[in-house]
Predict the structure of Xyloglucan endotransglucosylase/hydrolase.
Amino acid sequence: MSRVPLLLGLFMGFVFVGVAFAAAATATAKFDELFQPSWALDHFIHEGDLLKLKLDNYSGAGFVSKSKYMFGKVTVQLKLVEGDSAGTVTAFYMSSEGPNHNEFDFEFLGNTTGEPYSVQTNVYVNGVGNREQRLNLWFDPTKDFHSYSFFWNQRQVIFLVDETPIRVHTNMEHKGIPFPKDQAMGVYSSIWNADDWATQGGRVKTDWSHAPFIATYKAFEINACECPTVSSKSVEDLVKRCSSSSSDGKKYWWDEPNLGVLSLHQSHQLMWVRAKHMVYDYCSDTARFPVMPVECVHHSHTKVVGKN
Ligand SMILES: *[C@@H]1O[C@H](CO)[C@@H](O)[C@H](O)[C@H]1NC(C)=O
Ligand SMILES: *[C@@H]1O[C@H](CO)[C@@H](O)[C@H](O)[C@H]1NC(C)=O
């Protein structure tokens, strides 16, 4: 007799958890709930649910999350500078602090009117970057909002554009390669003038007669483990706090076993992006790296495995 209510209870509990996950996965927040301006407050324009950051000949602008996070998913919807955006860079990134910081970057490099925006990504581990990849998107990112996300757990970091993976940084600690999973990260975005390098190798300069340059944001989502910003806690405590654990039954969605690697569909998407849209990969830049960076060996391996 008592079995039925118990099972029903379990079932209801399951449904409830499912709903809670679904709700958490789609809840978007207002800018002020998660972020604050970090510089040039007078270059912020709030228009209903939209936030616009302005770059002119006086200043760019930037914002930062109020909290720091470990693991999970962070997404913004972004519409890039319309028309002539040459010389400008709009960045969306996660970063920890200090000389040995970790960082995941999206940098959107402007272009002259009609020429494609480029998306440069980079990964810093223990203060070292030099892992640039570049692609030209399969749509015009200035015409509409598109979502740009970081998914991060202890197995991998995935960069996603409209949920399509464009880059994966895999944990290869078993081969002695450090992986960024011991530092809480803030979430940042900014727009600034970088005409010394951004567009066509720095040959095309910012045309200030076309200012202001405006990047527009909406629908901020952070579904991640929040870490106390002022904390005396050790790294081990932070990692533990944000990891699922069998001892106390704590479970985080990003630790689900199926999120430890790309799904087959995702690895096909990534292969498509790399084949059709990638214009630069540090892994194949033999002039810059006569010896292939260690983590790149894995990239080419993934490709071969993915073809099966
Ligand atoms: C910035 O641009 C405005 C409008 O074109 C111009 O009046 C002003 O002198 C410029 N300021 C600087 C610092 O270049
Ligand atoms: C800008 O357009 C040129 C010409 O189409 C292209 O080669 C380049 O990759 C584009 N992006 C940047 C950032 O220069």
Observations:
- Residues 3-26 form the longest helix (24 residues).
- The chain has five helices and 15 strands.
